[in-house]
Every structure is written in C-alpha cells, then in structure tokens.
Design goal:
Elements: E1 6-12, H1 16-27, E2 35-40, H2 45-57, E3 62-66, H3 73-81, E4 88-93, E5 96-98, H4 102-113, E6 117-126, E7 129-132, E8 157-160, H5 161-166, H6 178-188, E9 193-204, H7 212-228, H8 234-253
Parallel strand pairs: 1-2, 1-4, 2-3, 6-9
Antiparallel strand pairs: 4-8, 5-9, 6-7, 6-8
Length: 257
C-alpha cells in the first residue's frame, strides 16, 4: 500500500492531562503520521516539559510551537498548518481521541476514492458512558449546516493540505462554528467530501454551566449565521433566531451569569 503522508495537528489550550491522552492516541496509530504538530496558545513551561518528555520516546516526530495570537483553536491550527509537511492534514482537538486504526482506514479511503476531504463518524463519552454520536451523511447541501452541526467536527476531519490552505484554513472570527464554516466553504467552491462510516473518533463531552464560555459560543453562533445568512431560507432564518434568543434568555436567567 502506497503510504499517504499525513501530518497530525493538535491545538491545545490549558488541558495538559487530556493533551497527553490525545497525543498517545496518535502515537499508537497502526498507520503513523509523518509528524505531530502541537500548537499551544498558552505558552508555559509545564506543557513544554510534558511534550519534550513524550517526544524522547515517541516513534513519531513531534514539533511543538507556542504563540500569543488572539483567538483559540482556529488560530492555533492555522499556524501549525503553515508548517505542515504532509500531503494531508488530520486534526485532533486536545480533548478528543482517535481509535488506533483511524489513519489506516483514512489512508485506504484516500487511495480508493482519491478523496481530498474526509470525515468519519464519532463516539462520545459523557458522564463516563461511551455512545455513538453524530453520523455525518454525504452529499449534504450548504443550508444543512446552518441550524445544527450534522457531524463535521475538527477531530474527525482529514483534508488535503493544499486545499485547506487555499480555502483560508479555519475562520477564528466565528469560533466555535469554524468547523461547519470550513465545510460550507469547501462545498461552495465545488469540493466533494467523503464519509468513512465507522466510529473512529472519540469526543469528550464536557458538562458546562451557563457561564462566560456560553456567551462566547452565542456570539460565535451569531457571527456564523450572519456570514452564511444568504443561503438560509426564510424558515431557517426564523428557526435560527428562535434558537438564538432561547439560548440568550437562558444565559440571562442563569445564576452563574
């Protein structure tokens, strides 16, 4: 089997314990990436020491970069992508995991279908229980991503590096909806995505209170909709604003607000 050069990018944000687990899920792949690039937007000695310790025993080269750019995951990923060596980039959030055959099965799909943008199905772990999560369907239209995310995340995306760069990477302005935004833009420019119908990514679902992070999510949600409102039907517009204002009221009435 002809080896596909795949770089793995992990953006991290003050989650050292979870980050270690994510890195090891990459190192233990049955089909190794050519490199792991870890991009940290909170420079600190502790995280750097952890990465250096793992790197010494890793069979996969690990490149660690730090930055103080404003923004979160998208900015970190875009910075790492600019130095990636692989023909393809596989992304992994620092609180998610890959099953050990993830990259192997992705590579087989690339060879079989000459895929440029690939997603897989996911499992989720919530309250200690592992269950099947969102299962992305193929041939969805741009409008299908406006109200909900049907399963196009970051950790289950592998994309041709040149295409990712040509599309401008992820848009950090609309954080955290940049995962949906990327696929909408790809579809708009005529790129086809393929789905590997196998649960190969494990997503950790956090239990958040209605706090500042929810206000950030709400703001990103609004920015995302404003960017793509032109593809929304009148009914979708109505449904979006009902959803938005319901969330807004919940935040205002939260004791944590």
């Amino acid at each position: 089997m002809k080896k596909k050069n795949i770089s793995c990018i992990i953006a991290t944000h003050n989650r050292d314990k979870l980050l270690k687990e994510a890195i090891y899920s990459v190192i233990k792949q049955t089909y190794s990436p050519v490199e792991i690039i870890i991009s940290n937007n909170i420079p600190n000695k502790k995280t750097r020491a952890i990465i250096e310790k793992i790197s010494k025993k890793s069979s996969v080269p690990i490149n660690y970069i730090e930055h103080r750019m404003k923004g979160r995951g998208a900015a970190s990923v875009n910075l790492a992508a600019s130095s990636a060596k692989g023909d393809y980039i596989a992304f992994l959030d620092d609180d998610d995991l890959w099953e050990k055959n993830y990259l192997k099965k992705i590579s087989l799909l690339i060879l079989k279908k000459k895929s440029k943008i690939i997603y897989t199905w996911k499992d989720k772990i919530q309250n200690g229980k592992k269950t099947s999560y969102k299962q992305l369907k193929e041939n969805l239209k741009m409008k299908d991503f406006i109200l909900t995310n049907p399963g196009c995340g970051v950790s289950n995306l592998v994309v041709n590096r040149k295409i990712f760069v040509s599309l401008g990477g992820f848009d950090d302005y609309i954080n955290p909806s940049y995962d949906k935004d990327f696929l909408i833009r790809a579809i708009y420019y005529g790129y086809k995505y393929h789905v590997l119908k196998d649960n190969l990514v494990i997503q950790l679902k956090h239990t958040h209170q209605l706090s500042d992070i929810n206000k950030d999510i709400l703001l990103g949600m609004k920015k995302f909709f404003k960017k793509h409102e032109w593809i929304a039907s009148p009914m979708i517009r109505i449904k979006f604003w009902i959803k938005y204002w319901k969330m807004y009221v919940k935040i205002l009435t939260s004791k944590k607000y």
